[in-house]
Design brief:
By secondary structure, this protein is α/β, with parallel strands linked by helices. Helix content is about 40%, strand content about 20%. A 4-stranded mixed beta sheet has the order 1-2-4-3. β5 and β6 form a beta hairpin. α1 packs parallel to α2 and α2 crosses α5. It starts with a strand and ends with a helix. The model has no long low-confidence stretch (mean pLDDT about 85).
């Protein structure tokens, strides 16, 4: 899997932060063995992330571009946008969250249908529920629940691999997530 960071964003990060961002993507790819896939992931860091499905997103999102393979939509590339206004901790969480969506696509959990609906792990989600969900419905879509869980797990592994200890307050906050 090839991750390409948008170089314009390099001017907004210190060399240390930029290296950390690169390492986070590589860490995720290695941890989930995504290097066997030949997809391109483009990452941009706008000052703000636009709204998606009517929700104001403050951190980031992943968009898939598809191609038609004999009537079936298949992923061609992924575009991740992450707000550069976030703390490094939040940027790392977003990297792990959005890369989970990439992983969900490449392992075949999603089947996109031409009418705009989706099948996720065998369950059909209609266009209406996908385009006009309430905030709680959106947060409880199974792919979002998985992405949050994987993100928290990856943050823990990331910190452990670097010998970073969490404070009592961070542990307490993570417990209640």
């Amino acid at each position: 899997m090839k991750v390409r960071l948008h170089l314009d964003a390099k001017t907004f990060f210190s060399e240390e932060a930029w290296t950390t961002i690169h390492e986070a993507f590589e860490f995720y790819i290695k941890e989930h063995k995504l290097d066997v896939y030949d997809y391109k992931v483009y990452v941009k860091f706008p000052s703000e992330v636009e709204s998606v499905n009517g929700f104001e997103l403050t951190r980031g999102y992943c968009m898939t571009q598809f191609y038609d393979d004999r009537g079936k939509l298949k992923p061609l590339r992924f575009i991740i946008k992450i707000s550069r206004g976030s703390s490094m901790n939040k940027i790392l969480e977003v990297i792990f969250h959005e890369m989970t969506h990439v992983m969900q696509e490449v392992r075949g959990d999603f089947q996109r249908l031409r009418d705009g609906s989706e099948i996720y792990q065998g369950v059909h989600y209609s266009v209406d529920i996908l385009t006009k969900p309430t905030y709680n419905q959106y947060r409880n879509f199974p792919w979002e629940v998985e992405a949050r869980e994987v993100s928290y797990s990856m943050m823990k592994k990331w910190k452990e691999a670097r010998g970073i200890k969490e404070s009592f307050w961070t542990k307490l906050i993570n417990f209640w997530r």
